[in-house]
Fold these 4 entries.
Entry 1:
Amino acid sequence: MKMILPIILLFTVYFCIAQEAEPEKRIADFQNKWLKTAEESLQNNEIRNAYVAFSFVSIMDSLSEKGNIAISKADSLRPILRTKLIPKLIGTWKLKSTGSNWGMSEIDKDSKKDKILIISAETLSFYEVNIRTNKRHLIRSERLKFNNIQSDFPSFSEFIYSDNQIWSYSLNNDDTILHMTNTGELNRNNSRTLIVCGNSELIYERIK
């Protein structure tokens, strides 16, 4: 459901602007508001909030002067956020629950195997581990490849898998819970799809 709220917000904004007698002025006002928010966030060293705010400015009108400024600012902040993200992801994670943004289910505690994810600076390695013998079986390995094709919903933490599926990674405040959401697919023409409802989701807990 977390993807649905920003979608409703953006559609509401678009609809309200479309009803205005002077939509260009409304867009400019919206951009000014979010540019101010972005600059204030930068001053407070809230880089993630600044990135989101700049992204919203560009989404409203990417061809305007303010939109171009915002694109440049967001592009400069994205690598910084990613550089900070990778060390937080590195470690060993155990699958805790699966489902979608409609609801999650806990992994069966009586299962004889654990689903383990080991993240290094370059790869994602998915394993099944026999709980009794502790024998590990590699299911698949993925190269850490960031998605650089932006959608209408700003994200700096999406990865593209070898099957072209795009997954968003997010951490809780103390970096002990990893939330993975399937947000779309990479197309052959270097565009992407966007899943906004019924997204597959996985939740891992850090064990090392």
Entry 2:
Amino acid sequence: MRAALIGLLGLAVATAAQAQQAARFDLSCDIETSIQPVDGAEVKNQRAIRMSIDTAAMQWCTHPCRPVETLAKTSPTVLTLWEGALQPGHARTFTIDRVNGAYFLLSITPSGTMTALGRCTPAAFTGLDVRTLF
């Protein structure tokens, strides 16, 4: 009986650790950003970024993790990092599809539009307090 109890306790601890690991992860993303000013030419660039996500704490960041931001909402299929407007005349949405890794960001302001499209893959969690040397 004691061995069974210890076994159940070990299973509960393992399950809790697995759940925490599933809620905390990094994403390695290859994205293309397009900035279209209202009165200028479109500027595009491609880059790779790394993000840390903690769905249990509802926090995320793009490395080097300054600042750490609050997740808008999560579901089994979509992470919503931003939604809504920061102020009148602005709109923004930022999502990552948890099924296929699609990265989508759209920000509209009176001065122009920024879009970013890409693909993300999971990576080992490095934490939300990542610091760099430069």
Entry 3:
Amino acid sequence: MSARSRTGLGRTAGTARTPVQLTALVVGAVFLLVAVLGFIPGITTGYDTLQFAGHESEAKLLGLFQVSILHNLVHGLFGIAGLLLARTVAGARGFLVGGGIVYLLLWLYGLLVDHHSSANFVPLNTADNWLHLGLGAGMIALGLLAPPRPRSTRT
């Protein structure tokens, strides 16, 4: 097999990941970590109230962010998507910018929905809303600003 053969990770052996790919990989890994932590009693307070979905779930990741089984599963899916899409520059950029847009829309949804109504199915609280704003803006900024090519290693 030559040094240019496929590695199975969507890139060629001997080629470095670009900054945008590394960024998407790290963001995806963090989403996966958050998904797992959402299922660990103690790290998630009120774990005994964890519901599949809906505002009735009083479980809070780190005692702050309201979560449900659905919420944790969505974080896990976002994480898997980030890891898979980080295989290419276009995929990494699409994950960061597209995911950022999704989180900005979720932020707007959280601002508009009554947190005590059945429409709050995710569930969301004020801490989640601010986190979603930061995630959305941050992911878009990273997707647009992270260089699409490896840094040159001139000596």
Entry 4:
Amino acid sequence: MYPEHVRHAPAARAVEVHQPTPIQPAVVTPAPMVAVHPGSVPAVASIVLPDGRVVTGYAINPMQHEPVAAKPPVSRAAVNVALGGVGFLAVCGGLLLLTTFITALTALITQLITLAAVIFGGYVAVQIFKPAGSKSGNTFHIRKAIFKRNHFNG
């Protein structure tokens, strides 16, 4: 269908333009017409398209929907009550989240204070209860009472 590729020298190349071959449409024979009694067939509408073809079909009346019963208008009070309920639920949810956050923050602070007390208390206990020969002579002032080398000087 297409010519074989042939290499040419660069100066001798010629430009060939290949146009596609149009495909011929298949020949369709129309269906034979069947005679129908005119009293049983509804009215037929024909339309001529811009290219000359004629389209024929039955006219179909648009479907008529049943009228919907008119709904009574919603009162402003009912709308306000509904919106107030939604707002109340939103505020309750926000307050619940806020109290949960405050509770978690309080627990965290309590744990940090307890951790600091345990670490500091352990350090003090190690310094106070060391054997007498390994003491550094550090003095700890706790509520105006002085502990030095296991002796209480109040």
